[in-house]
Amino acid sequence: MVENRPLLTFITHATLILGVLFLCFPVWMALVASTHPPEALARNPIPMWFGDQMVANYRELLFGDLPQAGGVPVGMMMMNSLWMALGITIGKIAISIISAYAIVYFRFPFRMGFFWMIFLTLMLPVEVRILPTFDVIVRLDMLNSWSGLTIPLMASATATFLFRQFFLTIPDELVEAARIDKAGPIRFFLDILLPLSRTNIAALFIILFIYGWNQYLWPLIITTEEDLYTVVMGIQRMANGGEEAPIWHLIMGTAVLAMIPPVLVVVAMQKLFVKGLVESEK
Fold first, then answer.
1. CA–CA separation, 253 vs 234, rounded Å?
2. What distance in Å separates the CA atoms of residue 104 and residue 111, rounded to the nearest whole number?
3. Cβ proximity of 144 and 224 under 8 Å
């Protein structure tokens, strides 16, 4: 039963509106700041409405060589972030779903032991694994390379655990029916499990893409080549320019550009994301 209480409805909507305004205010300020010349942001009070330098600022960001960011255009850094995020996302999903498939459907020695070893890696903070992983990458001569940027981040205990839990809910009758139809392990995986996992894969894709896009610490220590700089590294370099004052109008513009791809992915896959979190297609 839903009661109609006007005062409660007003308070609820007012709280939601205030929450949205509170969350959107930093984004609004970044967008406004990116449309002004640098001297406008040095005055007090800072402008709260758009300026007339939007086209010039964003053209400089996307196509100009920014000395504060190592001489790399933001457009190139965004492409680097995109390739890195896609590589990490696709690699994580592929490795995790195959690992979960092996753990659930194959009987081999120490099967549960391997699963718990994967699960226990969830307890290890990323910072604990950084130095050993960096040492391995150095020994494999993978510094300043795409493989060094993506491969160490591809293993995911969380995704493996989620796929395992989903596969455990698959009815045994479906497996028996596949055996009666003489479907081998590869055909069962490709024709039955993958289509059933579509929404789960979509939900994980969004989460892992944002995780890969926002990577900061690992790219910072694994690469010194300007051609491999990501957009998050670019923001860090522009904000910490040594003796030079931060170029806030360009920093804010880069932050706005960096938000666009994750937002587009979330908006484009929103229905699959919600469906993958709350229900399955079995």
1. 12
2. 9
3. yes
Long-range contacts, stretch 23-26, CB < 8 angstroms, 24+ apart: none
Query: Count of H helices and E strands in the chain?
Result: 16, 0
Q: How confident is the model at residue 132 (pLDDT cuts 50, 70, 90)?
A: confident
Give the sign of the dihedral formed by CA 267, CA 90, CA 196, CA 107: negative
Is 94 a residue whose pLDDT tops 90? yes
* Burial of 29 per CB tally in 10 Å (0-12, 13-18, 19+): middle
Rounded Cα–Cα distance for residues 223 and 144 (Å): 4
**Which pTM value belongs to this model?**
0.85
pLDDT tens digits along 223-254: 888 888 899 888 888 887 666 777 888 889 89
Give SS3 for 230.
coil
For residues 121-146, average pLDDT: 85
pLDDT in tens, 56-70: 888 888 887 776 666
73 burial type by CB count under 10 A (0-12 exposed, 13-18 middle, 19+ buried): middle
How far apart CA 127 and CA 68 sit, in angstroms, is: 28
CA quadruple 87, 88, 91, 97: dihedral sign: negative
Q: Supply 6's token pair.
A: 């006007």
Query: Among candidates 89, 86, 115, which has minimal Cα distance to 207?
Result: 89
pLDDT confidence of 275, banded at 50, 70, 90?
Answer: confident
CB-based contacts of 145, cutoff 8 Å, min separation 6: 228
Question: Contact 214/281 with Cβ under 8 angstroms?
Answer: no
